[in-house]
Amino acid sequence: MKNFMFVITLLASLICNSQIRGKVVNKNNEPLPFVSIYIENSLEGTTTNDNGFYELATSKKGKQTVVFQFLGFKTVKKTVTIDSFPFTLDIKMAEREELLEEVTVSSTENPADAIIRKVIASKEKNTNKSGKYQADFYSRGLFKIKNAPKKILGQEIGDLGGGLDSTRSGIIYLSETVSKIWYQKRPKNFKEVIVASKVSGQDNGISFNRAADVNFNLYKNLVPVADAEIFSPIANYAFSYYRFKLTGTFYNENGKLINKIQIIPRRENDRVFGGYVYVVEDDWAIYGADLTVTGAQINNPAIDVLHIKQNYNYEPNSGIWALILQTIDFKVGFLGFNIDGRFSASYANYNFSPEFNPETFGKEILSFEEKATKKDSAYWTKLRSVPLTTEEQKDYVIKDSLKIVRKSKKYLDSIDNKRNRFTLSSTILGYSYRNSYKKWSLSFNSLVETVRFNTVQGFNLNPEISYYKRMNDKGKWWSVSGAVNYGFSDKKIRPVVSFSKKWDNISKPRLTISAGNKLSQFDESNPVSYLNNTFFSLMFKENFAKFFEKSFASVAFSKELYPGIQFFSKAEYADRKPVVNTTDYSFFNRDGTFETNNPIDPTSTSVSFNRHRIFKTQVSTTINFGSKYISYPDSRFTVRSNKYPTLTLGYRKTFGSENSELHSDLVFSSLQQYLSLGNLGDFDYNLKAGTFLEQKNIAFMDFYHPLANEIDLSPSNRLGSYFIMPYYDFSTNDAYGEIHAQHNFKGFLLNKIPLINKLNFHTVIGAKGYFSGGRKPYSEYSIGLDNIGWGKWRFLRLDFVQSNFNGVKENRVLFGISLFD
Fold it and tell me: For the residues of 455-490, what is the DSSP string, one character each?
């Protein structure tokens, strides 16, 4: 065994030493980060790190030509004779002088426009050349913070992993990923297998550095950046969003003429890039890109700016210009945090003629090799394509040492002692007592959640306590909670207890058992929040929420049967009782009266149903057609496809009551989809339909209740609810259907109007319809402005809505918040 380990160590040493290494600097001897370095006429290479150092793996001795390429600098080709390894080669690079006189300028067309048109016309040809490939992918993520605050909203934030110095500055996140990737253009397929993954200071080693997440393919019309889709400077409709200027030309190391073209947004607030693209003459392919996009343009207020750089190399055998290096730098300023970050990625060992078979691609688009997160430092030294900087090496050493200490009981107890201190803010925001070593916590809800008001109970308290126990790191946990609700007007105590358990993060099986006595809204989806109901009752004497009382026991179970197929079930036994208003109190309008608690006739003092006991069961499944999934070592996540809709099918039954007239059977369904229409914006639709198998005079809470809305400024389900439909006016015990459609033009319309385009508002139009047996249809049509705000803070929305029912029209202007859109 000792001899075997000696051989392995020797081989690893030979591989590590079989390299060309050195440092790349500019004319002022300043290090140049992320210079592309490769052996001539190949796509095998590396890059320099932040300090300008590089290591180029090669085992070939003798004469070799090494190429150093960096946008804005003259390419250096250095022919060396290697006698032994490691071989040191330091390089000084000079900035490139770009000329314009080499271009014949036409008097009829801007030369940059002509070049971009040729690039657009050649996109299909160029992308077909690389229509399928295999490659190796390496990525590194680095977040650095400066002068981090000690507290946010009174809560201590700690040392952020242990990498901060005395000024609370330093590395807060460092990760690396090595993957193998497979790509196919037609049919569209992508797969990634992570060979090794490492995060400084963490045991699980699962990084965020997925190849798919940094696939900023400029040949596509829309480039996904963060949660936005940015118009590519070579999109088919690029001239609607950009102006172009030829700022220079030069010849690369192979004698190819390269055009440097500045891309100038026509409207700064569009979803557009700024910066430069470099285009190869005659091939009309991308040679490089140097692009920026702001937080306002991607609608992310935390981000100041993103800076994306791409380098492409030429592979002479296939005639392909392939991406070999990409960096994404960003600055974040939010709640006192000032973070500089970078994700760097390099691509190597391309194979543009792979042999794919039916098993090559499937629904799994990301997976981890066994023990991918457990590789040791020797493995990483051999595998890493970009050397670590001194600062990064230090961060790994410090945090890997701290990791052991921070898992100890003594350390975790000391942290808990600080976190578990009860303060004044604990009363307002809620309080949790933690035992991190034993992985449990005890939590109490906040004062805002505890104090409520409604017309049935008056002021009421709802203190809640919950215990949570984490069993392992694979998603297994259980929790138990208890709440006691007391109304000062009806003088009644209503307790509820609940138990939940989840077994894993793969299929995510979850069981919840609850029992007790509580007030429930007739629409048990709770369309009126407790906070809204309290506010409108006390301030305007409007009690929109309508309640009934039930003593109940229920059990619910859900599970992902297969990636993209979810199963839900619930069974309940309840003793239902009607309740009435017991108070007329409000802050204002003391002489007025509230509506009654009868949702069918709010002017009637009679109750809407008689007390009864009944069983209710429901099963449903949601199918995300075309979905795929990513597999982490201990979890799995579904990736939905916008190409296909999501279908929900369900069945609900009530039975077991002494009065058989209360028994019912409801079959229901929904179909929804989000569609990106490129520069035309986004279109969403949600269709719902259902029917009661037999129309009977069932209890009102068992009717179907469309998701009405009269007061919510920020509905969490805007596409499935109505703007101004009155609560309970359209509830039905018959067949029903709903149509919800919305189109957000983003900047397609308003950004073409001078002055208005500087506001960066988005035009939104919508239509909603409701149909149920025995009554005329209800409709709403809307036109509005979204993305209202200032600077990067754009979360407000303004809508003009017209409803129509039975020939009666109502117009309203609604001002709301679009946080959930």
Answer: TTTEEEE--EEEEEEE--TTS-EEEEEEEEEEETTT
Distance between terminal CA atoms of the chain? 61
**Residue 401: its pLDDT value, please?**
84
Angle at 417 between CA 416 and CA 418, to 5 degrees: 90
* Range of the structural domain that residue 680 is part of: 670-821
CA–CA distance, 582 with 490 (Å, rounded to integer) = 6
Rounded mean pLDDT of 530-556? 97
Give the CA distances from residue 251 to residues 68, 74, 99, 115, in Å, rounded to whole numbers and listed in that order: 14, 9, 10, 16
- Is residue 18 situated within a structural domain? yes
Residue environment code for 209-225, b if the CB has 16+ CB neighbours within 10 A, otherwise e: bbbebbbbebbbbbbbb
Q: Are 513 and 499 in contact (CB under 8 A)?
A: yes
Does a structural domain hold residue 806?
yes
pLDDT on residue 334: 73
pTM of the model: 0.87
Name the least confident of 50-64, 344-358, 485-499: 50-64
Q: What is the pLDDT of residues 775-792, one digit of tens each?
A: 999 999 999 999 888 766
| Count of domains for the chain | 4
The token duo for 194 is 């992570």
The percent of the chain in helix, strand and coil, each rounded to the nearest 5, is 15, 45, 40
Compute CA 113 distance to the chain's CA centroid, rounded to the nearest angstrom.
36
Residues 235 and 135 grouped into a single domain? yes
- List of residues 6+ apart from 771 with CB closer than 8 A: 736, 737, 738, 777
Q: Parallel, antiparallel, or unpaired: how do β-strands 155-156 and 510-521 relate?
A: unpaired
**Which residue is associated with the tokens 């971009």?**
116
- Check: CB of residue 313 under 8 Å from CB of residue 288: no
Contact 67, 75 (CB under 8 A): yes
